[in-house]
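Researcher: Hi, I'm a grad student and pretty new to this. My advisor asked me to get structures for two proteins we've been looking at. I'm not sure of the right format, so I'll just paste the first sequence and hope you can take it from there.
Model: That works fine. Here's the first sequence with its structure tokens right after it:
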Amino acid sequence: MNRYTWRTGILEAGMIVAALIFLLPVYVLVTLAFKAPDDPSSILALPANPTVSNFVEAWQQGNLGNALINSTIVTVVTIGLIVVCAAAAAYPLSRLGARWSKVTYFAFLAGLLLPVQLAMLPLYQTIRDLGLLGTLAGIILINVGQGMPFSIFLYAGFMRTLPADFEEAASLDGANALRAFWSVVFPLMRPITGTVVILNAVSTWNDFLQPLLYLSGSNSQTITVAIYGFVGQSGAQWNLIFAGIVISILPILTAYFFLQRYIVQGFAGGLKG
């Protein structure tokens, strides 16, 4: 039977302190979102007269409804394409032992080493030449390309832990390699798929630089760019900014709570591979 020692108490106290440190920015964010602009209290004090007018004004003034729709379209389509393309690419790379498959695999991983800023200018010129500047399709195309290397790395690592017995049984029943993958292998990759979905969803949803660069001057603003609209030459409307941030994090936070157990399982499988 394990005894409660002083080391355990110190460890628990340290974890509580760390949790409070991480929760402090969230507390400040939510508190300021419910404070009136003329509230004289400090940022750590609770609002004297909590109000939801900040949320209403931010929603109307920033056109956050349309921005949320645009962000949802970009995120959902991006995640769908990444899951399908990365899983399909990782399957032969993890199953075939040929030299070309290893070379191709490391070529994909090389994308993890290249900074996004290095390709910003040629990417902008390419999107402009394709006529996708100011469209959601251009942002989706860029996000898919950036999310592929790490997603392939996760899928390939997880697939190496799966036995090939199910695929061999499917081939004996007459299924080709494509049918065996989508009907047998892909359903078994649900944990790592949850990891790929939530990691790419967070980065796509919170992306600010690329929507600002490629959607500037258009009506297809994402939620991050719409919130940035509350910053003007005369100053920043902080009460609307914090209210907009709270609105923007609710969808992705909900998705995280639904998929959090798959994140742990997926990382465990990927690291094991």
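Researcher: Oh nice, that was easy. Here's the second one.
Model: And its structure:
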Amino acid sequence: MNDEKSRQLAYRVRRHALDMTNRGGTSHIGAIFSMADIVAVLYADVMHYDPKNPKLPGRDRLVLSKGHAGAGIYAVLAESGFFPVSELETHCQNGSRLSGHVSHKGVPGVEVSTGSLGQGMPMAMGMAMAGKMNGQPHTVFCIIGDGECDEGAVWESALIANQFKLDNFVVTVDFNKIQSITTVEDTIKLEPLDQKWASFGWRAIRVDGHDHAALHRAYAEALAARGQGQPIVVIADTVKGKGVSFMENDVLWHYRTARGEEYDAAVKELEAQKP
């Protein structure tokens, strides 16, 4: 598959998100950048949806459980035609429907509001269970953070999804190795993460989360596994702050906002990588 469409979309997601967080004085740019390639591949080539009919019954659903990275979802939705790109300029402004943590209230394309870690995956799992019970053809996708895997609700949902053979449920772990104020390794060790998920009965696929070809193959494998009775997890090894050298692998950029010279330098680096 030609990766050009998804690469261009990933660039635009990062570029919009940088401007949105700068303008609104919000944070989590590192978490947005780490998942940008994942959401770009999903919306460019994998998911079935109709931006002119956001509630299409047969649409695939995506739940961003790591809701603090909401600016990335708003950006990909706008670029995919759900609402005007110009509305991104209102992000986190008074009266805007585009809040910091992702909100479904009045925002076409957003299935549920999230932000409390561990909340989104159980909701997505419930959607998948309902779809399975009703014999629906759509797939439910969910993106969770690695730090979010410290939440018990994630593993309860994993157990339930296996129990009910939810092979219409695809979870992606944005494994960028940094959470909140330190590394995942120093907080609660997750490795071997793929083996942990496999021990819960899931088909585990591990890929470079910035390699578009690898992501395409992973999601193709996930969709091809429908009917085999296993939920699927794509463990995407990513880099926090991917795309801007001074943000990469730096815990500072979980909460920091790029302003002034930092913003200018980030714009310059992203522009240099434009597909």
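Researcher: Is there anything I should tell my advisor about the second?
Model: You could mention this: The CA atoms of residues 6 and 41 lie 5 Å apart.
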